[in-house]
Amino acid sequence: MLKYIQITEKDNVAIAIEPLAKGEDLGGGLVTQDPIPQAHKIALRDMKKGEYVVRYGVRLGALNRDVKAGSWINEHMIEVPQSPGLDHLQWGTHIVTDLPKPPRTTWLGYEVPGCEYAGSRNILGITTAVQCVQGVLDVAVRKMKEELLPKYPNVDDIVALNHPYGCGVAINATNSDIPKRYVRNIAKNPNFGGELMVVSLGCEKLTLDMILDKKDITPENVIVLQKEKGFHAMMDALMAMADKKLARLNQRRRVELPLSKLCIGMQCGGSDAFSGVTANPSAGYASDMLVSGGATVMFSEVTEVRDGVEKLAARCVDEATCKKLAKNMKWYDDYLAEGKVDRDANPTPGNKAGGLANIVEKAMGSIAKSGTAPICQVLDPGEIPTKHGLIYAATPASDIVCGPSQLASGCVLEVFMTGRGTPYGLASMPVIKVCSRKEMKEMWDDLIDVNAGTIATGERTIKDVGTELFNLILDCASGTKKPFAEQYGLHNYLCIFNPAPIT
Amino acid sequence: MLKYIQITEKDNVAIAIEPLAKGEDLGGGLVTQDPIPQAHKIALRDMKKGEYVVRYGVRLGALNRDVKAGSWINEHMIEVPQSPGLDHLQWGTHIVTDLPKPPRTTWLGYEVPGCEYAGSRNILGITTAVQCVQGVLDVAVRKMKEELLPKYPNVDDIVALNHPYGCGVAINATNSDIPKRYVRNIAKNPNFGGELMVVSLGCEKLTLDMILDKKDITPENVIVLQKEKGFHAMMDALMAMADKKLARLNQRRRVELPLSKLCIGMQCGGSDAFSGVTANPSAGYASDMLVSGGATVMFSEVTEVRDGVEKLAARCVDEATCKKLAKNMKWYDDYLAEGKVDRDANPTPGNKAGGLANIVEKAMGSIAKSGTAPICQVLDPGEIPTKHGLIYAATPASDIVCGPSQLASGCVLEVFMTGRGTPYGLASMPVIKVCSRKEMKEMWDDLIDVNAGTIATGERTIKDVGTELFNLILDCASGTKKPFAEQYGLHNYLCIFNPAPIT
């Protein structure tokens, strides 16, 4: 039985499929020199201090000591290299058009008038202009769910789109366009069916014109709490507006739609060294099938692609796309530098325990979820796409920020790959979990929707798992299946990205 | 009837108690030259371009045009001055010891073993090490409230202390000590009775040693979701631990305690030009009574005291306190400058509509809530005090961040002054609302607990309202009364202050 996985022939390290004892014979004369934890790296030959450790055919960094073949190579032995330059990226040098064909080309979605994409759910999403209104709105939403929702069986849920932005912030600061865009665009997510319901306090800095088109600022869409005569009047106004919006949403029906009407997001969190060989390539395979069928797929997480920027540039379809990629990488480099850190602040203790030595190795695994399709557009964080196909949405890698970013960009379903395990979920779109290791599925059998761990042991192929995931994506988008997080109602808050100061 | 309020004899402006028409005779030969909105400034005499507008005896800034006596002076006419220097602050030059005596000197609180302060409520607070656990914890807390809480009638509530920190952040960045301190100290709030219940995912950057003492990291206190065999096992573990903690909390009883066992916070939000003459001075009067009786009272909000720093320095009891005040002001100046803004990014559209021309005027009103007592200690954001008396806790002014900051610093009740109106509340401590204008109380009769607006019309004095507020603070702290926000369950999320980058 296979004991380790070497990804490319250039690689001078491989990862252990199971924990290995010291002195184990791995075949071909290779014998372990140390106990090696599962997913951690084994030196495939003797290496000298200063020599580069290579995995995915990529230099993870230089060794800070000599190692013998069969030794454990961990994060303390590798120096993080400089990140690749951004000024002379080559675009369009690796455009793959031979993508796997999808076994299905339609799904059942909720169309939205005037919108490129359709919804996977039919939800009343209630936008908040400021966090001050949250207490009142949450009480109202509980009441709506009890008293109104049962009257409208075609509506899936009512969600208060609470967030920490809106006031007590430097509203005109250089980077304030980012959180403003999130609030504005989340309201437009196809899962909310084009119905606008907005709750404002009345004195906040995030004024209605910053988040709504002028034509939409009407008494039919907006409740200003300071204009209501007290708490009970607020509740009455909220219930009355919700009732009207729910009645309209209740008219919606799923219809059979081409994949071009589907927009989904891919993200990963709690990754390990298997993520890049099992879960993420499977997601990449499903992504390629979706893109080849006409769907839009986003991948994200700036710090987790920064070291692979040359590979992404090579897949950009034109110069403008490549330039926007570089611009977003540069912006994040500067943002981190202002906080006196760099991209290597990204890996977590869990990543490291899972065998990821540094951000370079993590990035190579992370990028695998984008498959092989050309990148047709790059989005600023929270921006809505104007093209169909594979899209890079430049968001923070933080799981709890990436999700809301993809929601703002119009995704109606998210696929979440995990090595260590996270129960993350969102109220506004279904989140499918894919695990990288068999042990994870055994541990969290009732939380992990797809087990990609069997790829490491050779039981299944990337194509097998990728196809399973593709089908599950369409089933969940069509509402015929629900991922575990949705079944249990696991809902993380919307942490929207505000790189500007608070006041 | 009085038509305007002039605060000090030095002032060359006053504010309109009611909206004034053009041409109204205000007495003493003063006639309005413009319609003047309620709470806005009237020029008391002719003034030249470049002359300083003076209110509270303080220069709000220089006029950018000539104005006639009786004219409306608004924010567009005043240039914001430079903020006062921090290098040569004079401390101890204005120490007032003649404070009003409190009419009551005891309250009913829940003592906490080993803690300087007692709780105003008896709550199971469940600390989260990372936002990833929030979905699971929220489902569990709903179940706990249904199935466990009814068994323990002496426990007031169960609160998931969700926050956006813990992972996807630069955990070792220069300013990461601030959010870490929040998470650690909120768990110690006296309202949680010294019981620790912590939920970790297992792979997050905010490791348990960063938020707990070593002795407290035990299976009795900590649940690690990645160590549980799936969702149902997580729920069982959470329910079982909560059951044990609730049983212990249920043993607690209120006892009569001296005021020295009470620690409360003061903040304001949605302020107007009345705030500084009605609501905030009343809060200051109540604060003076509390401090004189031995209680600890915090006031906060850096950008809203920055322009009054010389007045605060004069009230500092020693050099160390004054230096820590200056250090915190400097830190925030730099923090804002990095985001390319300054303290004048603070005022909101509501503040301006309420007659506050700029941050200087807002600060003078804001400081009024600190009363006249000497400042015995200055705290970094989220720090726990070691002294009793009036304390300046240097937190952001953002309402939704200031509250959690005071919670971290150990406050068990908050008093919130508002001019424009906000329904803000917290699950972990009662929040009393005081309004600055009669019209606010008329509008939000069922949300405003204390009406200080009657001070402007001369119907009541600052002493009257301050004494009413003092009594309500003790009644609410003692659990014999509940403010409106608590009655309705209005609970804002815990937005903890993270000035470091996210990754």
Short structural summary:
Chain A has 503 residues and is of the alpha/beta class.
Major sheet summary line of chain A: 7 strands, parallel
Strand content of chain A: 15-25%
* CATH architecture level-2 label of the largest domain in chain A: 3-Layer(aba) Sandwich
What is the C-level CATH assignment of the largest domain in chain A?
Alpha Beta
Could you say what the CATH topology of the largest domain in chain A is called?
A: Rossmann fold
Identify low-pLDDT runs of chain A: none
Helix count of chain A, per DSSP? 13
Helix content of chain A: 25-40%
Identify the quaternary structure here.
Answer: homodimer
- List the strand order in the largest sheet of chain A: 18-19-17-16-20-21-22
Please tally the β strands of chain A and state the result: 22
List keywords for this structure.
homodimer, 503 residues, alpha/beta, Archaeosine Trna-guanine Transglycosylase, Chain: A, domain 4, Rossmann fold, seven-stranded parallel β-sheet, four-stranded antiparallel β-sheet, 13 helices, 22 strands
Describe this structure in words.
- 2 copies of one chain form a homodimer.
- With 503 residues, the first copy, chain A, is an alpha/beta fold.
- The first copy, chain A, is built from 13 helices and 22 strands.
- The first copy, chain A, has helices spanning 134-147, 177-186, 208-211, 231-249, 279-292, 309-315, 319-338, 349-353, 359-367, 399-408, 438-443, 462-478, 484-488, and strands spanning 4-5, 13-16, 25-27, 30-31, 41-43, 52-55, 58-63, 72-73, 78-79, 106-109, 123-128, 157-161, 197-200, 222-224, 255-258, 263-268, 296-299, 375-379, 390-393, 414-418, 431-435, 450-451.
- A 7-stranded parallel beta sheet of chain A has the order 18-19-17-16-20-21-22, sandwiched between helices.
- In chain A, strand 21, helix 11 (438-443) and strand 22 form a beta-alpha-beta unit.
- In chain A, 61% of the residues are buried.
- Chains A and B meet through helix 1, helix 4, helix 7, helix 8 and helix 10 of A and helix 1, helix 4, helix 7, helix 8 and helix 10 of B.
